[in-house]
Amino acid sequence: MDALFAIAGRDFVISVSDTSNARSIVRMKKNYDKTYKLSSHTLMSACGESGDIANFAEYIQGNVRLYSVRNSQDLSPSETANFIRNELASSLRSRNPYNVNMLVLGFDRNTGESSLYRIDYLAAMSKVPFAAHGYCAHFVYSVMDHEYNKDITLEQGFAIVKNCLTVLKERFIVDFPGFTIKVISSSGIREYSTDEI
Question: How many C-alpha atoms does 121 have within 13 Å on its Cβ side?
């Protein structure tokens, strides 16, 4: 019962993920952060099997940091997403595939543009203006499709997020305990509460 979605503007990306960690009918944790900081301007949010998420996210974080140390520069969001897709595709062809769906988002300091990549557990990747994973996708895609335009401001992005959260609260049978909202921009990654947006 995961909920991940994100919206990309020209110079920012908003990431939203629920804070519950559940399996079947049991909620094991209600303050679980499903986002992973890969660099000062790149973030990955993941959903799927808990063990696979933990192992794969730790592996990706370690390798992205190793690249930064070895080369004295960070990978761009595009390079990071392609590296993740390649690692996920390699694992599919092994005996230990990962059941992980991800959103990779970031701000490229070289080009001054933000980007959002949607990667599923079959290693299919696409660069998109907005994306969702989990059951929430059935509800929030229509809101984002209706309200999104390529020139949105951060405030308009927050308004879309509010509308998505309202739709989830009103229509989805599962009541999420909370949401983690993070914004990636030229100044880095900043976390917001649902009251601040």
Answer: 14
